[in-house]
Amino acid sequence: MKLTIPWLKRHLNTKTSIDQIVSTLTNIGLEVEEVHKPNVNLKLFKIAKILKTEKHPNADRLKVCDVDIGDKVEKVVCGAPNARSGLLTVYAPPGAEIPKNGMKLVVAQIRGIESRGMLCSESELGISNASDGIIELKEKKIGEKFFKKSDEVIDISITPNRSDCLGIKGIARDLSAYGLGKLIEEKKIKLKEQSKKKVKVEIKKNSGCNTFGSLCIEGIKNCESPKWLKKDLESLGLKPISAVVDVTNYIMFDLNRPMHAYDSDKIDGNIIVRQSKNGESFEALDEKKYNVPEEACLITDNKKILGLGGIIGGQSSAIDYDTKNIVLEAAAFDPVKIAKTSKQLGIITDAKFRFERGVDPNSIENGLKLAAKLIQEICGGKISKITITGNTKSKNIKIKFDINNFEKLIGFSVNSKDCQKILEKLGFKVKVKKQFLDIDVPSWRPDVNQEADIIEEILRIKGLDKVSSIAPYSNENKPALNYHQKLFHLVQRSFASRGFFETISWSFTNSKLNQYYSDQSIKITNPISADLDVLRSSNFVNLILQAKSNLDRSNLNLQMFEVGPVFKNNLTQETIASGILVGKKVSSTWIDNDQDFNVIDAKEDLYFILSDLGLSLENLVIEKSDKSYYHPGQSGDVYLGNKKGPKVASFGTIHPLILKKMDIQKSNIVGLEIYLDNFVEPKKPSRVSKKQLKKYDFQIVERDFAFIVDKNVKAGDLVSVIKKTNEIIKSVNVFDLYEGENIDEGKKSVAIKVLFEPTDKTLNDKEIDELSDKIILAAESLGGSLRSQ
Amino acid sequence: MLDLKNLSQEINSKTQQITDRQSLESLKTFYLGKKGLITEAFKNMGAIDADKRKNFAAKLNIIKTNLLNEINSYETKIELKEIDEKLSSEKIDITLPTKEIKKGKIHPVSQVIDELTCIFAEIGFSVAEGPDIENEFNNFTALNTPEHHPARDMHDTFYLDENKKNLLRTHTSPVQIRTMLNNKPPIKIIAPGRTYRCDSDMTHTPMFHQLEGLHIDEDVNMGNLKGCLDFFLKKFFEDKNLEMRFRPSHFPFTEPSVEVDISYKLENNKIVVGKGDKWLEVLGCGMVHPNVLKNVKIDPKKFQGYAFGVGIDRLAMLKYGITDLRSFFEGDLRWSNHYGFDANDVPTNYRGLSK
After folding, report:
1. Is the Cβ of A477 closer than 8 Å to some Cβ of chain B?
2. Is residue A498 part of a domain?
3. pTM of the shown model
4. Residues A154, A331, A298, CA angle at the centre, nearest 5°?
5. What is the pLDDT of residues B223-237, one digit of tens each?
């Protein structure tokens, strides 16, 4: 909502400075977004007359003009085809900035002829798009400033509840309540009834129009608006059209009372307000044809659609300079219907914006009178009686307000006299009964309907700075984070401690990529772009996309992770922590050779992090992964306890087909995922449920074995059968793996180191041999044999 | 009988010839070995007359002790010499590089969420959560924003079905609804999380982060709200002189509604939060609207309280001087490395918000 001080002063008797007005507006809830200062540059543009034109000696299309600018005559080179002697136009001197492009003029040599300044087109002046010649003026005084003096414009962001402040009077009322001057009440307008003309209006059921006020003016002469009116509208950024239309717009911005004017000679019979039917269409004033959706509010006559009620008028009954007789409309429309229809059609108008938020239903009569009066003053004509069809009286809301509730909610006390004063200045009617106020809400405040709203009114005028801070306290009835929230936090820190960079990517992604992670995806009905059209089914989709953009920037070795939601088809979601390792684990140094990340590196990070999250690594069981986006031979799912236990993680090499589809050619990507939601909170945190430490001081014995086993025997199984052979085995570690020369095809050699930790006595050779024999037997149970030395 | 005087002199001259471990060892063996001169002399002491024996033994013991001391001191010297030799021969070029130091980073949004959690935990808030996929009731209707309310238009909602029943939450406020539906007052929660709006330009991303706060009890008033936000903003921006301004505004789910500005100044065209001559809007808040309480079956006559919502990404940008919002979600590791935080840089209330 825009506002100028002179316009404001028509409603507010005040001497307050603009700076104070601006800061007060913000303090009472009408936030000033910007104050536009008048443009000093525009003063430089003058009305001038071309006295003489000569062809430029060195250019066919250019003319050298002698231009009378009032106090002197300047030579200007001009290329406009319409530059001719006797033409009144606009001259910009050296130093002026052209509004259209900000170009600053200088005295220039144009093809060898000095040009002092420039003659301007409408487009260059920023007043229209016409650029095929310089502006042509009539009956203007040479030497006068072309642009009228402009005022400072205050731009206010009006919150959706304050529709009354979409009229300048409403803003003036708020300022007066604060004490920045006195609100000027308009004088009652008495119209002389000079015309007997009457348009019959009929409002049909469910039309979306509650009240339709109208009057006729006969025999007008529509014309350009007077200066003051044009200036007012232009200062708010509106384009003047003709006096009749400009007056209706003026009243909309002055009083938040949208109106519409029809050329009554273009109306066939009665005005019928009704709900639209399937398949109707009409051409609106914006020269576009609209297919009206069902149940919209239409203003029609006996034959055609005249307009979309409260949104936009139609071409068929439009006002033009030849209009002689008019019907003025001021109505009350259903805000929900207006919102619905305008949204369906994508029409945004100043009227729609206001009706959607609320227009005072009691302003119909006053609006019609004021409009009729102004139109008659400008265009003449005879005014008829006002007809109001539909609801004529709307009931005001009454609120009983206990002033003690103000202190209870806000923290400081107010007295009833103060409250009464503030509310009355805002237009409320108030009766005080002890601590109670009986309040009548004015019809222009649809946002106020209960005590809390009254409290807000008093508070914003009193000032929010009156609220004093109460120091916060802690009554910790709950720990700040629960188990799963702690896991979320821990897993982030743990990933980062392993060298991973945390990223946050969109929760949505490209359906073409998401299909590799899920057969079905949740579609977004109105995606921001075609490549972000579904919710992601895995964190990997966007992580790998982000990895790709890093790879494309030659950042080739990456460790990245994201903890976030993954969405399922039943519209539920799961929090998963996912990491990827891309490229090389080691880039050749003086210590090591090049080494690509492989699936075991992912497993190492995974196990470190799972341990950080409080899981005991000995309890983890690995099975073949059921995820199709992993390489089937290089992936696993990790369960807690046994295969039937909760699945806590997966890891593996990302399927090469996905990388191929994404055009990632050179890099290998391995990934890990931790299913945080599947973690079960232990009854007690592990740190307080630890068992007593047991340590034994007998000699620890170490023995190495090498077994030849079938290639598909899993090292994990071998370790597990060996471990089970005796309780005193402290650890079993695979330290070498060998295939190839000296080993039969289809076989591999697995070297294992076993540590025995006796608990009651030192082991002797015989006992060690017995333990070793059992280990060999265990290996044989998996088809293994001891490798001969 | 051994001439002890001679022996003593002999030992003196021999010890002076010790140069290395080998000559030391042979000297040791010569006198003190199993068949060494002094060892033998002790063994053969029985042959000496009883009256002289005592004197002889005493003197021999002194010689032996002296010799042992001498040997010990030579041993130490030789060891030091050997270490010196080792030190001068064993050199490593310590300017050679280590293996690559791999340091991960925490995203600024996560860091700021941890900071906020730390700050609010100190004054008794706990963390609540809700899903990203919300229904139309929790996201709008229950929050006193009925269908066709102009405030809905401002939200540019992403919908997941044609009926507009399921959507991506446009703010974290539905967590208020979920929390109040499932708990009885007193309620004191914060809810950080992802939020979505169908909007994308230089300063808007279709996904961003908000933190919601809610405190409901019998007597929580606007003074408590002001005190809470004052505590939070000063702690977060780590500036006791930070000033805060309350401005009336409008949100459908609070009444009265307030927007909060903080003070800042411009230094070389950069926003520096703290004492200054300018105001910057950072959050919206207010007293929970009675209609919202009714919608979650809490009696507004008995309970009241405040709610607030703040953009986490924006807080991160302001505090850490990050200028481009879009860069938050691009996953460019150069950015992560520059603006990210170390794994062990965990905000705590005893050590402070940063290490």
Report:
1. yes
2. yes
3. 0.85
4. 110
5. 999 999 999 999 999
